[in-house]
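Q: Predict the bound structure with zinc ion.
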Amino acid sequence: MKISWRTILLWSLPALVIGFFFWQGAFSPTAVNMGSNTASTRMSYGRFLDYLEAGRVTTVDLYDGGRIAIVEAVAPELDNRVQRLRVDLPGNSPDLISRLREANINFDSHPIRNEGAIWGLLGNLIFPVLLIVSLFFLFRRSSNVPGGPGQAMNFGKSKARFSMEAKTGVMFDDVAGVDEAKEELQEVVTFLKKPERFTAVGARIPKGVLLVGPPGTGKTLLAKAIAGEAGVPFFSISGSEFVEMFVGVGASRVRDLFKKAKENAPCIIFIDEIDAVGRQRGAGIGGGNDEREQTLNQLLTEMDGFEGNTGIIIIAATNRPDVLDSALLRPGRFDRQVTVDAPDVKGRLSILEIHARNKKLSDEISLEAIARRTPGFTGADLANLLNEAAILTARRRKEAITMLEINDAVDRVVAGMEGTPLMDSKSKRLIGYHEVGHALIGTLIQEHAPVQKVTLLPRGQARGLTWFMPNEEQGLISRAQILARITAAIGGRAAEKVIFGDAEVTTGAGNDLQQVTSMARQMVTRYGMSDLGPLSLETQQSEVFLGRDLMTRSEYSDEIASRIDAQVRTIIEHCYEHACQMIQDNRIVIDRLVDLLIEKETIDGDEFRQIVSEYTNVPEKERYVPIV
Ligand code: ADP
Ligand code: MG
Ligand code: ZN
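A: Predicted complex:
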């Protein structure tokens, strides 16, 4: 297409010039009529009469109804050579004819040739036609140039930004650990494959399914799997692609999308990150956003505009269902909400199995152990973990991934890149005491998770780290457990203070204190675990969604607010004292552990417990599965 437009344009320019000349001269009727008799020299009418009188004219041919004459005359001054001259006559004069007859001159009259007239007409038309055609192509071309002058005229016509994939290549087998969501969506596949089974009993097929869950849990993957299983076209578009600078473009994209989908039904429309368009209307600072609201309105209208039985199912994904417009969530639009959550230990195992398919693992590796080590990891985290391990293996020039690489990869995914070891210095000693403080208290308190390892190798933002064994899916957390966590978290600062004194404590405890405060505050305001009694004073702290949440923030009086603060302070002070006491009581073993830590950089949990147990009683914590 493109090439031929350009060729036409290129050729039309010279044609235009040629056409112009034809138009000007060659095709004009008078010239054509005279054919080969064309005379180049003109002679005035008066002169012609003189020649006639003098008997010098031999032949006269009349053209154009007697208005033009080609005259052959003898020129005595040029050795009687015959000249051909053209004479414009003043109209058709019978007078002239009779004079020619009298003088016995050979004369003839020639009619206007029809063929010539057609050519003449064409000649007259060619130039304007070419002009119009060339202008048309010039305009077309310039409007195809991105950002060209024609672009502004074009913005309303949306380009199809959504992509249609007939085969996504993803099957339900490629998704694991989200069994409930999978089951729910398997039903959607049945809707698409055997709609009659449902319509026969009068069931209305749902129009929309909303996948809700944190990032990386496999929402996009699930949507692709549905398309792959159902074997229908899959239109995918991201919510942000509807949002445009020009008002109305997003809405026209929605229209285009649904139009295409209807042509290809049965099919699936997948709108990823729908919160970009589907936000509560009229919300946010400064009121609504016209463009987004028009787009959303169009989406709502389109969703109402077709029956579920047409075979279009809309799947949308979001990790912020709280900001979605309530109109989107009412029955008849996204009737079904499917929660896709971070997987449990079994789910993680099956996700690891999927992603280990194409990796070379050494025999010693137990995917189960990895699954146990990684609570809270999403599918994307696990995929990333195995990939990091494979990269490390390649870097270390090993044949297959070993547990060593896996462990390093977990540390890296959780805590960031490993830094260079600290130089021996007073600050390294202080960090050693800080970490051993966390680890010792975690070991000595019955309710706390056991230490997995203590290290002075910096990682990410942290200068040193104490890893505790993850406690898998125990669900409910008791008051004693939260207090244990607060005490261990503040144990780093407690060690700094007891050993180096008030003046030497560092900013290294900043993060710890933030966690401590947040845990204590939640005990008071959400879980009713303080002297204020069993009251819920705050809902879960999430990002404030301005315009909706701002109004309902403060649920208690100022008096209660100061009592909350007092309770939080009491809890933290109590834990801090407890921690300082434990550090003082175990000074000897702490000194030994810090020396060992500075020498070895890392102490693992078993060795740590072994050393501590030589000095004091270490409680058994059998609920925790040790890591291989
Ligand atoms: P999101 O929920 O943010 O849309 P994605 O579906 O894009 O997450 O997941 C990103 C990647 O993580 C996938 O391509 C896949 O490799 C991996 N992944 C996530 N969840 C799963 C899962 N449940 N099973 C297998 N792989 C998963
Ligand atoms: Mg996604
Ligand atoms: Zn700390």
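A: Residues 219-220, 272, 317 surround magnesium ion (ligand 2) (CB under 6 Å).
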